[in-house]
TrEMBL record:
Organism whose genome encodes this protein: Streptomyces cacaoi
PROSITE patterns noted in UniProt: GNAT
Annotated keywords: Acyltransferase, Transferase
Keyword Repressor appears in the UniProt entry: no
Protein name: UPF0256 protein
C-alpha cells in the first residue's frame, strides 16, 4: 500500500456548542505548529524524513485552522486533486491532516473546519471533495458517502497460478524511477479515462508518494519495484507496483509480495503481470490490499481457492458540495427525465428539487471507456427548498450522502431503496436513474492521502 499521508482525527463534536473557534488560513509560519498538532492527535513520533515529507506536503496544501486565541487547536488540509468522473473530471480537494487538539474536544471544531471547506468549495467552483475516513461513523453525518470500494486479495504462490486465459507473451522489464514517471504517468492517465474515482498524479506525486524507499507501515518491505509489460520503446501494455519481504524459516513464514497497484489494458496483459508476481523466487504469498471489486483476476483465475478475497472495504469517501454542478459535470449512460428531492443539513443550498433531463452528448457515441451505451449530457432545473417555483413532485428522495454514493455509479440506487435509505415515489424511477448512472468499470482508487 502506498504511504499513508495522514489519518483522521476521531474527535467527537458537540454540534450544539454555543462557542465557536476562530477559523482562518494557516500561514506558512505555522506549518511546524500544524504538523506537531497532527502528531499529537495521531500519536506519531517526530521522525526526520517523514516529518520533512509531510512538511513539504502541507506547504502545497490549502490549510484551514481553528485558533483559540493564537493557539492552533484544529487543522484541516486539502490536496488540490482533480478526480475522474464518467466522461471527464472535476476538481475535488482531497481532505487530509484533520486534527483537533485533545484539550478542545466537543466544541464544534470539526464542524467548523468542514463547514468552512464546503463554503470555499462552492464559492470556487469545486463541486466535490473526498477523503479516506479513519472511522465511518464520523464523516457520514457530514454528508460524505462511499465513493469507491476495494477488495483485499491474497494468492497462494507456493504453486503456479492457474489461469483460464493465456497471458500476453510480450516481455516484462523492471523500470527505474525516471522510467516509471516517464512511462507510467501517461499509462495511469489512460486508466483514469476508463475508470471513475481516480485523482490525477503529477510527476512530483509519483516520486514523493509512490516511489519512496522506506514503507511507512512496514519498514521490512523492500523499496518499490515497478514492472512493465511490453517491448522497450513501446507504450506499456500494463504495469505493477509492488514491494517484497523475505520469510523466516524459524517462524515458518514465507516471503511476501505486496502489490500496491496493477493496471493493464487487456485481461491477457493482466494475466501476465499476475503470473509474474506469483513466480517471484523465495515468496509464497501475493497480497493485494486494494483491488477493484470487478477485477478480471477474480474471473480468469483457474482456482478460486488459490485466489481469495479476504475482505472488502469502503475506500474513497465522496462529498457533493454542489449537487447541481456535480451531476452536470459527468456524462450519463442512458436517456433520463426524473425529479429528485435532496436533503442536505450541512450545505442547505443543496436542499431542494432537481429536475434532471439528459440530451445526446455533442458528437454522439460513447464517453471514452466510462459509459455504457451512448453518452448523454445532463441539464438540471433546481428549485431550492422553501423557494417558490414548480419542479414537479419528486420521483426519488435522497439524503446527500446517499446521492454521493450513487453519483459515480458506485452503489446501485435500487439497493438503497431496498435498504430504506432512498424513497422511490414513482415506480421504476430507481431503475431508470441507475441505468443512466451506470459505468462500464466500477469506480475505484488506491490513492490514499
Amino acid at each position: 500500500m502506498p504511504e499513508r499521508l495522514s489519518a483522521f482525527s476521531v474527535t467527537r463534536v458537540n454540534l450544539e456548542s454555543t462557542t465557536g473557534p476562530d477559523i482562518r488560513d494557516i500561514p506558512e509560519a505555522h506549518l511546524e505548529r500544524a504538523l506537531d498538532l497532527a502528531g499529537l492527535v495521531f500519536h506519531v513520533k517526530r521522525e526526520d524524513e517523514k516529518y520533512k515529507r509531510d512538511l513539504e506536503l502541507l506547504r502545497g496544501c490549502e490549510r484551514i485552522g481553528a485558533y483559540d486565541g493564537e493557539q492552533l487547536v484544529g487543522l484541516l488540509a486539502t490536496l488540490p486533486f482533480s478526480l475522474s468522473v464518467p466522461g471527464g473530471e472535476l476538481p475535488c480537494p482531497g481532505v487530509s491532516f484533520v486534527s483537533v487538539a485533545p484539550t478542545h474536544r466537543r466544541r464544534g471544531i470539526l464542524s467548523a473546519l468542514l463547514g468552512e471547506l464546503f463554503r470555499r468549495c462552492r464559492a470556487d467552483g469545486r463541486p466535490l471533495t473526498a477523503l479516506w475516513a479513519s472511522e465511518a461513523a464520523i464523516y457520514g453525518r457530514f454528508g460524505f458517502g462511499n465513493g469507491t470500494f476495494a477488495a483485499t486479495v491474497e494468492i497462494d504462490s507456493d504453486r503456479p497460478l492457474k489461469l483460464r486465459i493465456d497471458p500476453d507473451p510480450r516481455p516484462l522489464r523492471l523500470l527505474d524511477a525516471d522510467e516509471t514517471v516517464r512511462l507510467l504517468g501517461p499509462a495511469y492517465e489512460a486508466t483514469r479515462a476508463r475508470r471513475p474515482g481516480r485523482p490525477a498524479r503529477s510527476e512530483e506525486w509519483w516520486r514523493r508518494h509512490w516511489l519512496v524507499d522506506v514503507d511507512e507501515e512496514d519498514e521490512d518491505l523492500s523499496p518499490p519495484r515497478v514492472v512493465a509489460l511490453g517491448e522497450p520503446g513501446e507504450e506499456p501494455a500494463g504495469y505493477a507496483v509492488y514491494r517484497t519481504k523475505g520469510g523466516d524459516d524459524t517462524e515458518g513464514t514465507t516471503g511476501l509480495v505486496r502489490l500496491d497497484e496493477l493496471e493493464a489494458g487487456t485481461p491477457q496483459a493482466a494475466a501476465a503481470l499476475w503470473r509474474y508476481l506469483t513466480e517471484i523466487d523465495l515468496t509464497g504469498t501475493v497480497r493485494a490490499w486494494g483491488r477493484p471489486l470487478d477485477d478480471p483476476l477474480l474471473s480468469f483465475a483457474g482456482d478460486r481457492d488459490q485466489v481469495r478475497v479476504t475482505g472488502t472495504f469502503p475506500a474513497l469517501w465522496l462529498r457533493l458540495v454542489d449537487v447541481r454542478a456535480a451531476l452536470e459535470g459527468r456524462t450519463w449512460s442512458a436517456p433520463l427525465e426524473t425529479t429528485l428531492r435532496v436533503h442536505d443539513d450541512r450545505v442547505p443550498a443543496n436542499s431542494g428539487l432537481y429536475r434532471l433531463r439528459t440530451t445526446a452528448a455533442d458528437g454522439g457515441g460513447s464517453a471514452t471507456g466510462t459509459a455504457v451505451g451512448a453518452a448523454h449530457d445532463l441539464h438540471v432545473d433546481f428549485v431550492a427548498e422553501g423557494e417558490p417555483g414548480d419542479a414537479g413532485e419528486p420521483d426519488l428522495t435522497f439524503a446527500v450522502r446517499d446521492l454521493a454514493s450513487c453519483c459515480l455509479g458506485t452503489v446501485p440506487v435500487s439497493r438503497l431503496v431496498r435498504a430504506g435509505l432512498v424513497t422511490e415515489h414513482t415506480p421504476g424511477a430507481a431503475a431508470a436513474l441507475e441505468a443512466a448512472l451506470a459505468t462500464e468499470l466500477m469506480p475505484h482508487t488506491v490513492e490514499e492521502f
